[in-house]
Amino acid sequence: TTFDFAVIPGDGIGPEVIAEARRILQAVLDSASVEATWTEYSLGASHWKDTGETLSEETLERLRGHDAILFGAVGADPQDTRVPSGLIERELLLKLRFSLDHSINLRPARTYPGTATPLAGDPEIDFVVVREGTEGPYVGNGGTIRRGTAHELATEVSLNTAHGVRRVVADAFARAERRRGRLTLVHKHNVLTHAGDLWRRTVEAAAAEHPAVSWDYMHVDAATIHMVQDPGRFDVIVTDNLFGDILTDLAAAVTGGIGLAASGSINAEGTAPSMFEPVHGSAPDIAGQQIADPTAAVLSGALMLQHLGLTEAASRLEQAVHAQLAAWAEEPEGSRGLSTAQRGEAILSRLG
Amino acid sequence: TTFDFAVIPGDGIGPEVIAEARRILQAVLDSASVEATWTEYSLGASHWKDTGETLSEETLERLRGHDAILFGAVGADPQDTRVPSGLIERELLLKLRFSLDHSINLRPARTYPGTATPLAGDPEIDFVVVREGTEGPYVGNGGTIRRGTAHELATEVSLNTAHGVRRVVADAFARAERRRGRLTLVHKHNVLTHAGDLWRRTVEAAAAEHPAVSWDYMHVDAATIHMVQDPGRFDVIVTDNLFGDILTDLAAAVTGGIGLAASGSINAEGTAPSMFEPVHGSAPDIAGQQIADPTAAVLSGALMLQHLGLTEAASRLEQAVHAQLAAWAEEPEGSRGLSTAQRGEAILSRLG
Ligand SMILES: CC(C)[C@H](C(=O)O)[C@@H](O)C(=O)O
Ligand SMILES: CC(C)[C@H](C(=O)O)[C@@H](O)C(=O)O
């Protein structure tokens, strides 16, 4: 079989980190004798400035034909007022997630050798946040009346369905079973009673079917405290779209690694390609200087292989990354001063 | 003038910490020759179990007559299944905030001598979160259809008005002017476009009237990263009800002091009494053992004095707390092993 990948390098440091991820993935696939084709799509803020396209129906249709999408980062320089704030995020990134039904937004959070956490005592952390990706307050269901007057009212509606919550909860329980068997539901059901009640009943029902998994519930505010004071307690966190957005940035911060955080936006039913991307942004301030860290993009590639069932290739790649991070941790200078390409080269050399 | 205070000790450790706060406040008021009366109200989970009352209209009317309310903590033991989950939070705590129009939920976050933060390098932190208190997703405007079926849909609606946003933004700018002149608006306007747009325009308009304050905008997810990596950058944060809930727990965690975090729920127009309470909960697991730390309750009392214009008394009290925390920081054992009353006694002795 040949895997047919779409690549969206995007803006800023996106192209630089994706170049490394792509050649490393190619090497891993080669040595597993897996054939792959790569089709690059020019999308993002620059592309919009050049062409006026955020994501046309035609491009979306072409993307649908691929087996998976490797995504870099998008977003203009915040100083660049030609790009309306939030446009690329909504009309490209969120549009991809919603159109391709990316119900499972998967965000592993872990410490690696040599990366210091900002926490005292430098704890070991290894959990995964399974964030819902197609519902909640992200649905764009808001409105404004009397805009600009003293009587303005603005609303935002969070939509939560049994269908949407069930599939992400099922995925989270399955992951917990393959991991350390612990699941934490994070919500705010004492305030958001209707949505919270749906989430809770759904988790209770799934728990009955997964007796090997023990679970607990945590309010989102309390979860931030635990994530700072005792992040080692988490194994799998399942939560809604907005809470997941907040908690995964916090998770990346406490593990010390925005530069290492990988993610997958997964179509649970396989009706459209899933998408894999580093959590970091396009970092326009350091773009084009070959100083960005490609590790998160490479690890997102490993998640992609994993998702496609290329389990061995995925773990070879992960191990190569871990080995290289461990090696840097031993060296006095670590990876300091290495270019984006040199970092990629080093990981490549670990593939043996 | 006589100040007429209501006191709601509540559940768990509430009565223990409020007892200390009250006698310390009384001492401060005495030496300022300010007369005060205190009326205790039995409310909370235990009271509900005894009487079935969460907060009757009659009690609410009586509370309205006071100058301010000192609140301990409410909430049953989570093991106690007789108390429906969320009932006391919604029907007492949130009902007070909404009925008494507590638009400004004020939550200072700072480090104190001797309290270690969980962050490496133990940074100095001193900011205040001005959280909106009467709107947003907290309004209880949700619904469910087809409950329990595969077609269930649950909604939560966030309501945001010019009136509500303006008054909290005005308060935040005024505070920033009295502090270090920096304000950060936290929202998620790239996703919650309608509410985010209202918040942003409101801040822009207020900024024009407060040229001495410089301000910036931060997405809530990014704000969690800064709070972990660089909390010293914040001076005044203004944000919505839900984001404020999440960020203030995170703030209490990074400052190392849930046991020290004070808060005020303030009626901006003075049409009803404001309420002051420690951020910590009722901690049923350690209740009745005289081991709870009363400091957050005492500092909430200082916020209350401040709010009532008793500025000198408020700063005397704050200074006493700071002096005592500094003294403990010098001692090898610190405050370890001291009872709730002994801690209160120590603060009292610092009042001189
Ligand atoms: C860019 C933004 C719309 C997006 C989100 O809120 O989901 C980002 O923060 C993320 O976490 O992927
Ligand atoms: C108890 C709960 C309703 C409350 C809130 O969400 O506001 C609490 O978390 C707080 O921050 O005061």
Name the descriptors.
10-stranded mixed sheet; homodimer; Isopropylmalate Dehydrogenase; binds 3-isopropylmalic acid; two-stranded antiparallel sheet; 11 helices; metal-binding (chains A, B); alpha/beta; 23% strand; globular; 42% helix; 2 domains; 352 residues
Secondary structure elements and their pairing?
Two copies of one chain form a homodimer.
Chain A: E1 2-10, H1 14-31, E2 35-40, H2 45-51, H3 57-64, E3 68-73, H4 87-99, E4 104-110, E5 126-132, E6 136-145, E7 153-161, H5 162-178, E8 182-187, H6 193-209, E9 214-219, H7 220-229, E10 236-239, H8 241-254, E11 262-266, E12 274-278, H9 295-307, H10 311-330, H11 340-350
Parallel strand pairs in A: 1-2, 1-3, 3-12, 5-10, 8-9, 8-10
Antiparallel strand pairs in A: 4-5, 4-11, 6-7, 11-12
Bound molecules: 3-isopropylmalic acid (IPM) (2 copies).
One 3-isopropylmalic acid sits between chains B (89, 93-94, 245) and A (190-191, 221).
